[in-house]
Design brief:
Number of helices: 3
Helix content: 10-25%
Strand content: 35-45%
Strand order of the largest sheet: 2-3-4-1-5-8-7-6
Mean pLDDT: 92
Oligomer: single chain
Low-confidence stretches: none
Order of helices and strands: EHEEEHEHEEE
Largest sheet: 8 strands, mixed
Number of strands: 8
Structural class: alpha+beta
């Protein structure tokens, strides 16, 4: 029996990089992944590039400034996997449900993410040190 509240797929894997421009050739020329879009998400302090891989994507995250969470991540841990985004439907309900189970959220309400998606992060202290993101796309995607 399918759990209707379960994530629907891995939407994307976020990878922190110092420079999208320097990182892109590996993904586009060596791995032959298709570049879908590059955009800035000023509210998150990042520039992102999405690359298609099957039904999922890889999201390269470049800090826009030193106070960006990505800049702090790179300073502490270096470049590498930053988060795993889970595609969900009904993101606010999902947040409420997981909080009721004692899971700590970074975002208690969804915020606007790249591509116009609504996103919310689960605190890594509640998920074995892994940063998970709930990601709800517009119905047209």
């Amino acid at each position: 029996m399918e759990n209707l509240n379960a994530p629907k797929k891995i939407d994307h894997i976020g990878i922190a990089v110092q420079s999208i421009e320097n990182a892109l050739p590996f993904y586009t020329e060596q791995l032959n992944l298709e570049l879908l879009a590059i955009e800035e998400v000023a509210s998150q302090g990042v520039k992102v590039a999405f690359l298609k891989i099957g039904e999922s994507k890889i999201e390269l995250l470049e800090p826009l400034h030193e106070e960006s969470p990505i800049a702090k991540f790179i300073a502490k841990k270096g470049e590498g996997i930053h988060h795993i985004a889970l595609g969900v439907v009904g993101i606010q309900e999902r947040i409420n449900e997981i909080k009721e189970k004692g899971i700590q959220m970074i975002n208690n309400e969804p915020v606007k993410g790249a591509g116009g998606a609504q996103v919310a992060f689960i605190h890594p202290k509640s998920s074995g040190g892994i940063l998970y993101e709930f990601c709800e796309k517009n119905k047209s995607e």
